[in-house]
Amino acid sequence: MRKIPHVFPSWVINFFFLLGLVCAFAFRSIIVLEHLRPDLVRPVWYLAVLGYVLFFLYRYSIARKRRKTVTEYDLINKIRNGERLGQQEREAAVYSLSSIVRSREIFNYLVISILSVLAIGADLLLTLMGR
């Protein structure tokens, strides 16, 4: 019998969510720092890159675990064909769906988009002001 994966505890999910937001903010702040504090650009860039390495390795592990669960239990074909799911298949499906629902990734996408627009706006404003 295969072991059904589990969803990470909330504190792990929240830690990586915050790490992703900090890195998103750091990357977008570089455009402003070029105008106001050029000496901070490299340290902030290193912080952002190293943080994103950790963040995306975490996201990779989750995506890999979800994919492996769906393929190992052949969930797509069983659901598509209307087959009755056994206990393990149901638990695997519940894990996959719970993992998606508990994920904070949709909020990361939204915040990253907003921060990107704000960074572009700040750069244009600072450029027009001659900074």
Structure description:
- With 131 residues, the protein is an all-alpha fold.
- 80% of the residues lie in helices and 0% in strands.
- It contains five helices and no strands.
- The protein has helices at 10-36, 41-72, 75-80, 87-102, 105-128.
- The longest helix is centred in the middle third of the chain and has 32 residues, at 41-72.
- The protein is elongated, with a radius of gyration of 20 Å.
- The relative contact order is 0.16.
Entry keywords:
single chain, 131 residues, elongated
Shape: elongated
Unreliable spans: none
The helix tally amounts to: 5
Helical percent range? over 70%
* Proportion of beta-strand residues: under 5%
End-to-end C-alpha gap: 64 Å
Mean pLDDT: 93
- Total strands: the figure is 0
C-alpha-based Rg, rounded: 20 Å
Structural class: mainly alpha
- The arrangement of helices and strands along the chain is HHHHH
Main sheet makeup: none
Brief characterization of the structure:
The chain is mainly α. Helix content is 80%, strand content 0%.
